[in-house]
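Why do we bother with holo predictions? Because pocket geometry can differ from the apo form. Keep that in mind while you read this record for guanosine-5'-diphosphate.
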Amino acid sequence: MAENVVVVGAQWGDEGKGKIVDLLTEKVEVIVRFQGGNNAGHTLVVKGHKVVLHLIPSGILHPDKLCLIGNGVVLDPEVFCRELDGLNSLGVQVGPSSLKISRKTHLIMPYHKLLDSAREEKKKGPDKIGTTGRGIGPAYEDKVARTGIRAADVLKPQLMLAKMEKAVEEKNVLFQHYFDQPPVKVKDMWEAIQPWTERLKPYLADISAEIASVHHAGKPVLFEGAQGTHLDIDHGTYPYVTSSNTLAGNASAGSGCGPSALHKVVAVVKAYTTRVGAGPFPTELDDETGRHLQTQGAEFGATTGRARRCGWLDLVVLRESCRLNAPQEIALTKLDVLSGLPQIRVCTGYESTEGRLAFPPQMENGLSQVDPVYETLPGWEEDISEIRSFAALPAAAQEYIRCIEQELGVKVGIISVGPDREQTLVR
Ligand code: GDP
Ligand code: IMO
Ligand code: MG
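The structure, written out:
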């Protein structure tokens, strides 16, 4: 039987999911995004050429694969069209036969983006989440409030316009009386989005049926997660999270297939920790080592360009990621970035007022009230970016990987030693 695989980030996003999805795409026929939107930035490097994808699944660079955008995604029509144009200008042929959008996918409207930035601007100091400003939260709010615009609505202009008018009526109260901003005009917005929504029409499809037919034909499907486990709306570091469920289990609801169709979960783990935006981060480093990780790892956001905060690997956070996603395999990325550090530390527990903790506390902001407990491992000097087998890695790098496997009880099956597709070891 064909094996369907879910790839998810195990930390706070930017683990290298794009690279791993691109790599695993070779073995599958279909790649599905099931949550998030263009808050994601997934980087692919093929023979030195870099492509960043925000909405379109990371399998798109492989010819003859089918890429699907599931109902769990929130889609900005303009961003979608611009991404399509960008790919086509690179010579990657993308059209409705290779890319489909669920009719149930919610659309990000211009007022969602305005609301996202108005909220962030109004918040003060530590209340700011540091969102990507892409309208993600407000679009999901409307979905849950049952006032959202769905992709299929573009086929019914009267319905769509009426829904927009209703949504804007409510939002204008906020814009005018809470955010001190001018009201938004539906007519202007409607006209502005027409060129983009018009172009969505040929891409609309029944994604649940597409997955079922591929599955019944015995062909494998790959589900591509966005963000990371600790940005999950329920299980992440609430309220410093995104607005969707980022866990592997959501691949089922977010695309319209049963959970028994998810055969294998691969958790992508960066060899150290990064975080963009606000929120607690126990192993964060504001020193020479932090700068090493930032510089060597080129840790700048693929979506907003913001500098990513950097720190040691946190096995407490990862222990919970393993419990929440039940991965059978870890893909360890950016191991090359650790080269040149005399010693490497891993956080194996937290000290707290409740004593020693092996899992993150569950109270709001509990993670900001713990002290990491570290184990120190030897570092290595060698550049490992050209190494292609586990046995050829320096002994200290092998020890680091074994330590992760032992602590988490999950095999590290893929090791990434550089951004390029080729810079990968499969064990
Ligand atoms: P994603 O959001 O999880 O897909 O990750 P991003 O693309 O936002 O960030 C990961 C960054 O690390 C990108 O710039 C990748 O090209 C890069 N990258 C991925 N794997 C490796 C690796 O093993 N080594 C190095 N040095 N860079 C990597
Ligand atoms: P990928 O898929 C890293 C973060 C934002 C912010 C919080 C909420 O590339 O790993 P949002 O705009 O979603 O309401 O912002 O979540 N965030 C990410 N951080 N990688 C991402 O995606 C992210 N998507 C959202 O920085 O802290
Ligand atoms: Mg990213």
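Residues 384 and 392 are 9 Å apart (CA to CA).
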